[in-house]
Design goal:
With about 150 residues, the chain is mostly helical. It has 5 helices and no strands. The termini are far apart.
Length: about 150
């Protein structure tokens, strides 16, 4: 008897990390302009947005989720922005929020952004552990592809 693939429920760690992530993003978004002045920051915002949208397009809406758990019907994506970095959606979030912070660089907003970096790093490490368990080929992909910044890190 064939059963439909079931989705994996998010762990307490995932729920906590995603909750913190959204609080920090909301704190940044609600305390300054969403459209920063200056073409450089607007460019950063646009690049971050394009990276995120392209990552979603390549992954497909059925696989997009905010929790690190790997869906049972999920597949390993290594095309599009995923051939340059393993976590382009995290790159996108960090670029967009950095543009917002630099548009109004108050100390508490910088602290929120630094908290976001730390939260996403914990989430990223947890997600990578889950991906390695689910996809044997992930280790080779991980060795040849940078985490967040192409050619750098």
């Amino acid at each position: 008897m064939n059963q439909a693939p079931r989705n994996v429920a998010p762990s307490v760690l995932s729920l906590t990390l995603v909750g913190i992530q959204f609080v920090l993003i909301g704190g940044i978004a609600l305390t300054g302009p969403l459209w920063p002045s200056g073409w450089g920051l607007r460019g950063m915002l646009a690049v971050g947005g394009v990276i995120g949208l392209r990552a979603i397009q390549v992954m497909g809406l059925r696989q997009v989720k905010v929790f690190p758990e790997v869906a049972s019907q999920g597949s390993l994506i290594v095309l599009g922005p995923y051939r340059w970095v393993r976590h382009p959606m995290y790159t996108s979030v960090l670029l967009v929020t950095l543009a917002w912070v630099l548009g109004s660089p108050l100390s508490y907003r910088v602290m929120l952004w630094m908290g976001l970096i730390m939260t996403l790093m914990v989430k990223l490490r947890y997600e990578e552990r889950l991906l390695m368990e689910r996809f044997p080929e992930y280790e080779a992909y991980r060795r040849q592809t940078k985490r967040l910044i192409p050619f750098v890190w």
